[in-house]
Specification:
mainly alpha, 12% strand
Length: 119
């Protein structure tokens, strides 16, 4: 456990961002906003979508639905939630809408989560 803590500590220090110890205690409103972020990310379908988009760079709804073995409408609904939250961006090319991850913090968080799962 100590080794995992040290490795995560290194990750936070190499990112150049401040750590939790340097920030003031979370206010109730900030904690509620953070809870909403984690609820958005705490969904296996949305996590799989973010991971697939991170790997591919960008994908259209039909390709993402095929990759995840889901119906395009179900994928589209989840993509809209992620887009509304500012995690994804979309562009229309002809009849297809292509999505890509624009929030690099989410990519880093996903990477760290996968790392924690593997250790």
């Amino acid at each position: 456990m100590r080794n995992e803590d040290e490795q995560l500590d290194k990750l936070s220090h190499t990112s150049g961002k401040s750590t939790g110890l340097e920030r003031p205690l979370l206010a109730e409103e900030s904690a509620a906003e953070l809870e909403a972020v984690f609820k958005m990310l705490g969904n296996r379908t949305r996590l799989r979508m973010i991971y697939a988009l991170t790997r591919a760079g960008e994908m259209c709804v039909t390709d993402l639905a095929a990759a995840l073995e889901m119906k395009p409408q179900a994928v589209s609904n989840q993509l809209q939630r992620l887009t509304d939250r500012g995690i994804l961006a979309s562009k229309r090319t002809g009849i297809n809408i292509y999505y890509r991850v624009v929030d690099t913090c989410v990519v880093k968080l996903l990477d760290r989560g996968i790392y924690l799962k593997e250790v």
